[in-house]
Amino acid sequence: MVDQASATRILTFAPAVPIPDYLVGEVQSKLAYVDEAIENAQVTASGDRIELKLRQPANADRQAELQEKVQRVVISMAKGAFKPKIQVLEDHLDRPVPYHKDPMQELTSHGEISQEANGIFSLGPMLTRLIDYFESRFLELADSFGAAPYRFPTLIPAKYLERVNYFHAFPHSLTFATHLREDLDAIDHFAQNAACDEHGLNSPPESFAQVQALLSPAVCYHLYFSLADRPLPGGQIAATAVGNCFRYEAINLVSLERLWNFTMREIIFVGPKDYVLENREQGRQRMERILEEIGLAYRVESANDPFFIGEFRKQAAFQSAFQLKFEIRARLPFRDSTLAVGSYNYHQDFFGRSLNITLPDGSAAHTGCVAFGLERMAFAFLAQYGLNAENWPASVRDASGG
Ligand code: AMP
Ligand code: ZN
Predict the structure, then answer these.
(1) Is the CB–ligand 1 distance for residue 249 below 6 Å?
(2) How far is the CA of 123 from the centre of ligand 2 (A)?
(3) Residue 352 in contact with ligand 1 by CB distance below 6 A
(4) pTM recorded for the entire structure
(5) Residue 30: what are its φ and ψ, rounded to 5°?
(6) Does residue 330 contact residue 298 with C-beta atoms inside 8 Å?
(7) Which of 247, 257, 305, 341 to mutate to test the pocket of ligand 1 (most atoms within 8 A of CB)?
(8) Quick one: which atom of ligand 1 is closest to the CA of 305?
(9) Strands, E, within 224-373: which ranges?
(10) With b meaning 16 or more CB within 10 Å and e meaning fewer, what string describes 146-156?
């Protein structure tokens, strides 16, 4: 029975262990996955209070249950955590930029974005031309390495992701693909009765076949899978591809910043350790000149992937210790914060070992990639320069027809 006197939609409480400032964002983003009852979750900047806004009032028992689930996340991520040493490779954050507003409203009123659902956006002509321009610069970078072009599918087999431990590391953001079972009655029933309510499609789960494929969360995995279980042809490979990527980010899916369905351009290196590390570094240095021409205010700094709570502490520390990931973080002047628009990654021989990709000497191949989020590049650029092309750097204006 709901005790109406104590039922509430707002729950505020202290974390079970203090959340250090450098973990506030990571913990907050994981609170989105704690319970479907949560509409919004905030951790104060100082990390000493958590506030949950619920979709419906919850009684005392339910409140206790929600708190317990939140504390599990907090303890798992923050207890015994130590501050990673942030390494800054480039700092152009103070590059002067003319615009200081959130571009979302203007993008909507100009018909440049149309939101189909949370995290699912259509983009209009100006955004598309801008992205095409950024793409031309990324392709120029790919060409400078002689990277061969590839096209990869949007679906990815479950057995492949299992092989690279993806289910363990990033279960929260997976998107599953299925279809109706090959069963005349199930298909007929669906055809006659399928309808959407506010929660989605009303079809019973047993209408759908067991999941064999997912929507791909990254581009470079497809290259590694295509190279699996054999010697690496030629001993080294540079490749490039653009593709749709899917990462379910629950209630964090607001604005063009965080999408369920986004597009990534990657330049991928497979070969000996030195080959991969040298090319990753070359990629960063060549990109620095391109980003200067684009006029982006940004910083390149060490980072970690958004591992799920159980894996987070160990894996994030590992990435940090071995300098495996650096992010291009563009300034968002309207919020006085930064947004990752790209990353420089080195996976050591993780994929080479998991997928049995061998070098001529029999050892496992190393891999690395340079990855750009196309929608985020456009969003960050417009957050710094606005929609009026007259205020854009000449190189961007002329080439994108702005
Ligand atoms: P990552 O492989 O996680 O470093 O991702 C590469 C790039 O993809 C990031 O730097 C972002 O620009 C972009 N990206 C990743 N996740 C999202 C998302 N949920 N929405 C939009 N862009 C994303
Ligand atoms: Zn990659």
Answers:
(1) yes
(2) 24
(3) no
(4) 0.94
(5) -75, -25
(6) yes
(7) 247
(8) 3
(9) 230-231, 237-246, 261-271, 298-302, 325-332, 337-346, 357-358, 366-373
(10) ebeebebeeeb
pLDDT in tens, 194-253: 999 988 999 999 999 999 999 999 999 999 999 999 999 999 999 999 999 999 988 777
Tell me which ligand sits closest to the C-alpha of residue 169.
Answer: 1
* 238 CA from centroid of ligand 1 (Å): 21
CA angle, 79 then 168 then 275, to 5°: 100
Using DSSP's 3-state secondary structure scheme, residue 372 falls into strand
What's the 237 CA to ligand 2 centre distance in angstroms? Answer: 14
Side chain identity at residue 272, one-letter code: P
Find the helix packing angle between 374-385 and 125-144, rounded to 10°: 120
What distance in angstroms lies between residue 336's CA and the mean position of ligand 2's atoms?
Answer: 28
Distances (CA, A) of 358 to 11, 147, 230, 239, 269: 53, 20, 6, 17, 14
In whole angstroms, give the CA distance from residue 282 to residue 223.
Answer: 21
Q: Atom 22 in ligand 1: which residue has the minimum CA distance?
A: 373
> Could you identify the residue written with the tokens 């250090």?
20
Whether residue 259 has its Cβ less than 6 Å from ligand 1 = yes
Q: Which residue's CA is the closest to the ligand 1 atom numbered 15?
A: 373
At position 179, the amino acid (one-letter code) is H
Enter the tokens of residue 229. Answer: 């279980």
Four-point Cα dihedral 332, 338, 343, 345, nearest 10: 180
Quick check: 343 and 301 in contact, CB under 8 A?
no
pLDDT in tens, 330-383: 999 999 999 999 999 999 999 999 999 999 999 999 999 999 999 999 999 999
Measure the CA–CA gap between 222 and 202, rounded to whole angstroms.
33
What is the spatial distance between Cα 89 and Cα 340, in angstroms, rounded to a whole number? Answer: 15
Q: Are 57 and 37 in contact (CB under 8 A)?
A: no
Which residues neighbour 343 within 8 Å (Cβ) at sequence distance 6 or greater? 303, 325, 326, 327, 328, 370, 371
Spatial neighbors of 356 by CB under 8 A, at least 6 apart, are 228, 229, 230, 364
